[in-house]
Amino acid sequence: MPREAARKGGVRILDAVKMYGAEGSGVLAVDHCTFDVPAGEITVVVGPSGCGKTTLLNAIAGFHSLSSGSIYLDEEMLCGPGRLKAAPGPDRIVVFQNGALFPWKTNIDNVAFGPIMQGLMRRRHAYEKARQMMADAGLRGIENNYPGEISSGVRRRVEIVRALMTDPKILLLDEPYRALDSLTKSVMHEALLEIFYRNRVTIFFITHDLEEAIFLGHRVVIMTTRPCRPKKILDIDIPHPRDYSVLTTRRFREFMDETAAAVHEEAIKAFDAGEKER
Amino acid sequence: MKREDLRRGAVAICVFLLLWEAGSRSESWFGYAVPSVSQIPPPSAVLLEMSRLMLEPSFWESAYLSTLRVFEGFFAAMLIGIPLGLAMAVSRTFYGITFPVFEVLRPIPPLAWVPASIIFWPTQELSIAFVTFLGAFFTIVINVIGGAQAIDIRYFQAARSMGSSTWDIFRRIILPATLPSIVVGATVGVGITWAVVVAAEMISGGGSAGSMGGAAGGGLGFFIWNSYVGGSYTQIVAGMVTIGIAGYISSALLRTVGQWITPWLNEG
Amino acid sequence: MSESELAVDMAPNVTSWALTRHRFSEWLKSPRPYLMLIGFAGFLGFWYLSVEVWKLPRFAEMPGPTQVLREWFSPDPTYGLSVFVEEYYLHIWVSTRRIAIAFFLATAIGVPLGLLLGWSVRFKQYVFPVFEFLRPVPPLAWVPLAIVMFQGSETPVIFLTFLASFYATALNTMLGVESIDVSYIRAASCLGAKRWQVFRHVIVPGALPFIFTGLQISVGVAWFSLVAGEMVSGQYGLGYVINTSYTMVRYPTIVIGMVTLGIVGYVTSAAIRFLGNSMMQWRVRELALGGDR
Predict the structure, then answer these.
(1) Would you say the ipTM is above 0.95?
(2) Residue C35 near chain B (CB below 8 Å)
(3) A82 and A207 fall within a common domain
(4) Which residue in A168, B4, B43, C44 has a CA-CA distance of 20 to 30 Å to B241?
(5) Given an 8 Å threshold on Cβ–Cβ distance, is C130 in contact with B16?
């Protein structure tokens, strides 16, 4: 597919550090993180709540600055010494935890928003493409409804379609399915994978759910509790395309065994430290 | 950051005062009288006047009288408004009966009640107090209802399952949970009360129709009207500034008391 | 899961009119309309009994409801004002006109100012202190100064009303902008919107619900100030009616004035609410149909 070559989206995080607050009483959120997010793959970051993983995502997206260290996107520096804050841009689109579909626009207005704002195509084409992409994702029929009228699971899917409209290099998902029940979640996972197989966009996914991480990811990065640092990095060699039958395979269970202890250990530390839910 | 905040604000106020001064004195400074603004006394004159007034006991008497009226009306509004609001929030039946009447009376501006109030109440003071009471009353009740209705039903369920009586639930859940809304209602209400007191004082003491009870016995509103009638414009502005300061202090006081009685809101 | 199955289940296709009709019929079926009638009956009954039947001491001089009603609807009213008299409508018109001018001015200046105050931290740092500096002065305290500043008798009254309304509108608009979830702004930036586009597509629509709440408060405050202003220095208008009715001992007319004020005030508030709802269909539907399903 020609798209693959043109849009890579590999992210490299080098020795990132983020400290909040004044000099003396600062809180260290990110503690010298270094790891790679390979292009064209799904990388999932797992860690207890409040550990700092969202800070990392925000740094990539350009909403927060780093205190030191650097982040590269396809060999181009996003932020680093001299420029500690990246500018937000359509090459790195975020899907937010509580959803950020504009409630005052219809679903199709939302989906067509990106290309129209960037002036990439005429309105008519943007809407045609939006309709097409929504149909591809199984969302036909709700184009003219408002986000407030549909269920949150469907809202999430519309948001992902909106993000993909302008072919971003990397999709940043910040615990997008956290607020959904587990039945809806499993449907969302398969939907996300379907979208991934069709678009091959790089995905950077944050969660606290280990099973979700291993199911979705090519690579899983387990973070320590705050301040976060990669504790363990696994390459999940379960072949794609995956579906839910994968959950009961032996290989899946092996991965769970390998990682559960590490995750649990960090969870206990977070609990003892009294981490507040964001 | 905070310091820059203050600095910018201070700069802005200084610029504002300067423009005011220049506008007021524009005729003598520039030979051209800025419309409207040149009629206003300049801040320098106002400041002078205020320092003179500070030394006059009659001025402090007026200020005291107004403040007294504000707090009388305000506390009456709280005393009646809070229980009423809570009753309305707790009982659907009571709400159904009283709320429509309440909503019909609410759009009538408090000052429109002044004549009716004067006819009804035996003394001038009481009639002003009643109108003042009305001003804050509606705001407080609305805020209390809003706050009580917003209480998460799960608190009730948790309490019941732990064996609480209805009185307990009221005391330990409804009251504390509604407290923040009561504080907001109070802070807004006290501002309205000041507006009503000043208005009532002006109307009773002055007013185009004149004689709604004659000299109502002072207060800052009366003071301002008197200054206007007497042609002392600087005093008008001095009076306005004083009321502004008094109003600000009242709100700030309430906000502080509010924070003190709802300490759980201050974290984070 | 086939596409069509998904689509049919996903969103209700209800028209707004059907929604309104449904809510109204639900209301009729509940005990609420009857409780409301009990409330009004109680209030009017108490008024009637205390003034006209029992003639309680304090209530002696007050006009009773039957008196007021008779006067209000009489073709030849004793005191000069009823629904059949042209002057009645003149007063309503004068007051409403003043409100309209003041309110529209206040909205035209207050909303943009509020939007800017909420949107630009810098702007707020410079402008807000001056704003807050002038705010604690109650509207009526401005009357003498306004009379001194402006010519004629109309302008001071309108100025007063404008001031009060302006503050309420600007403040609520500012709060509205500040209440917008930052995720929306971030999402828009991600999707490539430039600052002015974020302002137009996110800030303005996002603040609209708060702006309309503010406008309802603002019109209420406007009536408050207008009546005060009219009572002190005006000719014609409902506040003036109430004032002069008192001095000319035309007591039933006082009540007529008050009731009229209440009605007109309610209508203006409702008109704004209605306008808001039609401009923000998304919100009405969200509240009625959604609530995170």
Answers:
(1) no
(2) yes
(3) yes
(4) B4
(5) yes
